[in-house]
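Kindly inspect this chain:
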Amino acid sequence: MSEEKPEQPENDQEMPLVSHLTELRTRLLRCVIAVFVIFLPLLYFSQQIYTLASEPLRRFLPEGATMIAIDPASAFLAPLKLTMIVAVLLAMPVILGQVWGFIAPGLYKHEKRIALPMLVASIVLFYAGMAFAYFLVFPLMFHFFIGSAPAGVTPMTDINSYLDFLTLLFAFGLTFEIPVATVLLVWVGVVNVAYLVKIRPYVIIGCFVVGMILTPPDPLSQTLLAVPMWMLFEAGVLFSRLIRKRGDQPQEDESGDQPPATRP
């Protein structure tokens, strides 16, 4: 009876460094092209995009008050910058897909089964964090800020200043990646679940410190960022209990499945 040949990875040939750099350049170029392909048609709607993005603030402005443009060029440049940011955000699935295509050949098959869902989860969580900030956090913050204006003071925000404020969308998007980061740390063996449980009190304090740094100086906005961060950490701990550490390979790897040597 012939002995069954162990399954081998699809790409088990070592690639030279130049090939890696060439592939990296190609994938970066694809990301840039994807951003500009999305940006060009959006450019026509740049004014409408800025109007939509500023709606959480404008709805709370006093009657007769509007946003202003201090710099003559900002009326044109601010919507243009925002449109580019929106193009990058919309191209994020393509960008992360290129990242996945670059690292996937260096993974075991069982690692791919874990990494691909985590890639999808990271995209969904990033957009969920931005939606949470836009639909919940921003209205509460602006209602608080506008309502706190002294008598005789009419709040009127410069459109460039508001564009800087929109960076909070990225902050919330990144903080919603905490479950993915937690699972990754456990998967690669940097920490274990028991250690994460042990440092939980310090994580809670750290969440409020990060909330204090990333949000305006009011307790409401700080809490609205810190509490979701804490809950996302707990979700990461929960899912970390369900995965196997990367070094604990399944039986198929012990029987001859070697990791592809595509990354020096």
